[in-house]
Every structure is written in structure tokens, then in C-alpha cells.
């Protein structure tokens, strides 16, 4: 079969466009579960590989937070657990930070979601990118970038070790003899490292996927290296096909050093999509959101995306001020936006408006044919193995993509017409990992 | 209307009887979501107030863990979030420890569940009761009892403060002006205490119930005092009506010191129930489980319930050995079981078998009439405001209770025939708490 692309539906309350909630067609409550259920069911009917949910463990506190719909939202694991009960096939990828969590809790919750969903869980491993998060966990200041990644690497090792606590066939459940699991089918982890001491074993059986799919989004050097070592899916923001190809080649090249095949890691750039039956209709649709952007709100979002800088003191019609390199985990995004502002000579207000929809992701505004052409070019040109799809408003923007772009991708033989497997790994074409601590017969 | 009793369905994988999984009618997989969904739907059809799920953050590692079905299970918040999507009315009470968690995470997840479920979340606040948990969170030894409670009290204060981060009417969502929430409708907590420093605000809007219902189960002096100060529901194990009455009176008497009315705290003893159409049928049903108890497994469970003692070295037909007072948070249970063994001159094996079903909770084995008589006597004799119902096997044991005992309680006018409200607070007859940080108009 021809190589197939993967699609993730990046869910975010009212939609990705910062002004989406002001549109008359958009339900303006980011804590309305029925909107998420609707979006999940639209994505599943279109055979998306997965839903994806971002996260932060702090509320934004900048001056214009009051003008954005992003201050409150569902906690991702509770949200995706609820969605697992009203879907059957689609993958469920939640973000959880390694900076302010305990690996035992994280291992456990994702393993639990994998069981609840019959093998559809994915963990988007991040390091915390907002200084505000530190204050909610007893810290005065944010953990520096290098230390965050060292902690993340060890965190991932512990989580993976806990996921492998049980042999797949440990549970014999012999009603006659009373033996529920083989005593040698379980092992303590006894991890003692620089950041964590974790005994184990996990109190969740090895999960349907062996391990939930490991997703990452860091694009810094440290982020790429951690991804090459451990990730199975990488989300990324790439401004052009050329840059996407460079990123793709760089990351795939790093795999060999860890003994990994290039198919064992899927690269899925984000793409912001507005679909119309004509180019004019798509642009008109986009304008309906753009014209609702309060410039101060756009600049507020910009400040957050650049690394939590307060830009409210700078003139809206002036240039992007020079900023120190952020320690806030958005360094790659900061570089990307600084370049964009310089290349196109954008004012602060223009740059804020520019990212109000796609938030720095590649934007496609046009007909299904045009969008499919671009996605195909990226996919066949080895800039992407698939895409994480951002739409301006939810759930309706996803319906536009599902009803117009997906059929076009299917006609071209690039995307499935029905699910072939049951698990997220199967959708993505990823192997189920064996458990290194036990033989195939489940012996230690 | 006549005072109504409350019913909780205490869900535990294959059921509460330690040998339940060996019964031919019982699905033996504790990680099968469909069993939980079935149980939840049975309980909801019978108008139970809530589902209740216990928790531990460690797998049991004693020698006979291999002969029990309790080594692996769903993480409660993911499980109840999934169940929230397939139920409409029933409350969802999850256990989470204050000993090895961060208050920001706990506040957030329960608030998220409260939103997902339209106001049905409850938090069973516990201190960790198993030394094994310490090792999964970087600690060499368990936190001593007194310190656990001091930490728990501060933890609860932080969580409650975070739940009150937002005024109920902060969210104006004015599409025309672009104002999403009033800037003065949110406040940082800025908590700085002995155990926690938490800035806030929470990134979840104030939840449908104002705050999720606060449940506790500690019966020690420290536990009772914390409950009197903060709890809205108390689960407890009481061996007789006389003892239940004493506990009930003691706890209700403590409320006045905190300016609380006695109706603001509901006391729900656990009751283990086996129902038959005749006394003989009920006993025969119970025997089908009892005869499947491996005495060593019964004694293993007993050791855990006494405070994680290894009793495997003692003769099965000898008496319960003298044990030092446990530091493991099961002190009240230890006293109760030591008394029981002494009063009835039970051997170790007999005591293990005795707790194999009800685990120290009051047991009722008989017809629906008999069981309803007992529940009514406890309820009207002020030994209970309701009951947390444990059944030997799930989901079928719950069906017996729902189809036989519930109609009898309804005929007597003691229990609702249909839900009157939408939220767990409404089911339980608890007030929705006002937010002390904001005026009724939502001003600070």
C-alpha cells in the first residue's frame, strides 16, 4: 500500500483563532464538554489518527487575559478520559509536563487511559514553558532550560520503566487454582537517579499498546535530541516546506545514533487550515475572524508565544522590540516569529494579527484542492509524515476540514477511508514495543 | 418531605469479596471498563447518589498479592471521567491522597471533572495509608500520622482556595466588546504555608457545584476533627448500630465548634450486602464466595487492613498475634478488628475469612426486607444519614441490591424514585457554597 499520511485534530476549546469565541457561530464556553464531544466525533467520522490537547498548569495573568477565552479549560487527562467513552477508534493524546509532576502519577494516568480506551492513549511529553507554572508548585523561579531537559529525560525513563512493570501475559486469572498473576510476571523498578527515586511496580497492568505513544514537541537542540532518543511522534511548527524538510531530515538523521529506524518516529507539523469552496470564500471566512481581533489581544498572545513577555508598553504600530532569548521553553518559536517580523517588516499589531489564527504554524487558506496540494507536497517532499490540524473555530471548523479536505486526500490515496486497526499505534504504523524486562513467555 | 437516605455504590473492580474473581459468574479482569460502565448504569438506574472509588498509589507486594485481583486497577479520576460521559445524574466520588500529590493538580482535576459531569464530582480526601506508597515518590519512609494530617489540612485549604479562584459570574463573554471575563472576577491565592506555596489562580472556572463535594473517611481523633472542620460526607466502618450511633453523635457534636449545622455533614457507614429472595438463598450465595477464599489470601488481606503487617509467618489456626499500633493510617480499622478477634475468639484464618467480603464493614446477608429493616433502623436511629454499599461481586451484586433492596426502601418512603436534582450536592441535600472572596455581584 502507498504510504499514508497521519492526521491529528488539535482541539482547543473555542478554536485556535484568538477571536474565534467572538464569532456568532461559535459557542463561547471553553468548558462545555458537548463541543469537545462533537469535535471528537467529527474527527473520528473522518478517520483522524488522534485528538491532541495542549496544556499549561497555570492561568495566564497578563493584562489582556480578560479579553481571551484561554484562561480556563479542561484538564487534558480528565477530558480525554471522558472522550474515550464516547469514541471507539480515534487516538487520544494529552499533554503533561515533566517539570511539575511525579512520574508515578503520569505513568499511571496514561496507562489507565490506555486501558479505558482499548489502546488509544498518547502522552505529549513537555517541559513547562511558562514561568507562571513554577509559582503553583512551590518554586520561586522557573527551572532553567538545560535542567528541565535533564529532568525530562530521567522522567521519561522512569515512566517507561513503570509501564513495563508487568509482563504482558502476567495475568493468568486461574479461577480453579486461585492464581491471579504469576509472581515472576511483575518487577519493581527501583529507580534511583538524580531527580527521582521511584520503587514501583506500577499498579496498572501493562497497557493494550504496551506503552502509550510518546509524543514530543520540542524543537530546540536539546528537544530534538530527546525526541530522537525517545519520541514516536513529533509535533512542530514549520514556516515553509524548505524549513520543514530541513527539520525532518535533521531529526530522522539523529535516529540512527540510537539504533532506531526512521519509520519509528512520525513528524507531524502543525497546519492552520481555513477551507472554502472557492479561494474567495476561504479568505472571506478567515477575515470574519481576523476582523474580530482586538490588536491588544493579538499582541498579548504574541507576548506569551515569544516566551511570556509583557509587550503592552510598546506602540502597536512600532516594530517588534529586541527581546532577550527566552528561558521559557518557547525559544524555537521566538526565533521563528522574530525572523517573520524582520523579513516582512511587520508592526507589532500586524505580527499579533498574523499569529492570531495559526499561532506561528503554517497557514493554508483556500479550497480543498489547494490545501490537499500543499499537504501532499509536504508529505511527498519529506517535510512531514502527517499533520496536526488547527482550525480557527471549533467544532465547526473541523467539520469543514473533515467534509472537504479529507475526501480530497482520500481520493488521492493519501489517507484511509476507514480505520484498519484498533489502537493509536496501529493508526500511526508504529510497532507495539516489547517489554525488555521479560521474555516472550513472560519470564524475568 | 420525609428525611431521605443517601446511597453510594462503592465500586471495586471484580467486587469487594476477595474471592469474587474466582466465581464463575464474575468477569475476572479488573481493568475492563465495560464492567464499570455496567455497574455505573445499574446504580444510576436505581437513583444512587454517587459512585465511590477508593485508591492507593502503590501495587501490593506481599507474598500473596499474586492470588488477589487487587494488584492493578484504573486510576480513579480517569475512570470517573470516562464514566461521566456515559451517565447523566449519578455523583462521581474519587479518592486522592494529600500525602503524595500537589494541591494544584488535585484542585484542577476535580474541578475539571465537575465541569465535565455538570456538577457531579466529589473528592475523597485521604492521607496515604500504605508505606509502599512512599517509595514511589522519592521518600524512604512513610510520613508520620500527625504530620500527614497537618499536611492534609493545609492541602485542603489550598484546594478550596483554588476552587474559589473565579467569581461564579466572572465570565461575561461579551462578543461585541471582546470582554471575556471581568478582570476583577479572578484572584490569585498567594498561599504560603508550612507545606505548600501556591500562587494560583486555578486555570479552571468555578465549577457547577461551586466546589466538588468534600468526602473523608478518617475515623481517628485527628481524622474526625479534620472531618468536622471540612468534610461534607464521611464514610466510615462501624461494626454495630450502637457504635455507629456513638460515632454519629460524636462527629455531629464536633460541628458546632466550626459554626456548622449538623445537616452540612452526611455520615455514610459502609455496609456489605448479599441479597437473596430468602435468608437461605442469601447465605448460599455468600457461601459461594466464602468457600473460594484461600485462607492465606484472607490472612494477607487482613495483614494489609491491620496496617500492612506480614502475617504469613503465623499459624493459620492460631490467634491474631499482638501487633504494635500501626502508623499506616488504618489505626481505627486495626482496633476494630482486634476487638472482633478477641470477642469472638477467632483464629487467624477465621478472621481473614470474616473480612474477605465486607472488609470490616457491617455485613447484611438476607432478604430485601431484612436488609431494609436494618438500614432503616440505622438511618432512623441516627447511626447513619445513608450508606456506602459494598457488594461481593460486580457488576451483578449491585444489580441484586438495585432490583431488590432499593424498591423496598422506596416503598417505605426512605429513598427517591427519581432524581430531583442534577448535581451531587442536590442529591445529598448539601448547599452550594458561596465564594467568600467575591460579593454576590462578583466583585472582590
Automatic annotation (TrEMBL), chains A, B:
Protein's UniProt keywords contain Oxidoreductase: yes
InterPro entries the UniProt entry points to: Diverse_substr_monoxygenases, Luciferase-like_dom, Luciferase-like_sf, NTA_MOA
Give the matching PANTHER family.
Answer: ALKANESULFONATE MONOOXYGENASE-RELATED, C2H2 FINGER DOMAIN TRANSCRIPTION FACTOR (EUROFUNG)-RELATED
* Keyword line: Flavoprotein, FMN, Monooxygenase, Oxidoreductase
**Domain Luciferase-like: where?**
16-385
- Recorded family membership: Belongs to the NtaA/SnaA/DszA monooxygenase family.
Protein name (database record): LLM class flavin-dependent oxidoreductase
Q: Which CDD domains match?
A: Nitrilotriacetate_monoxgenase (cd01095)
Q: Where are the transmembrane segments?
A: none
Top-level taxon of the source organism? Bacteria
Keyword rRNA-binding tagged: no
The record's annotation in NCBIfam families points to: FMN_nitrolo (TIGR03860)
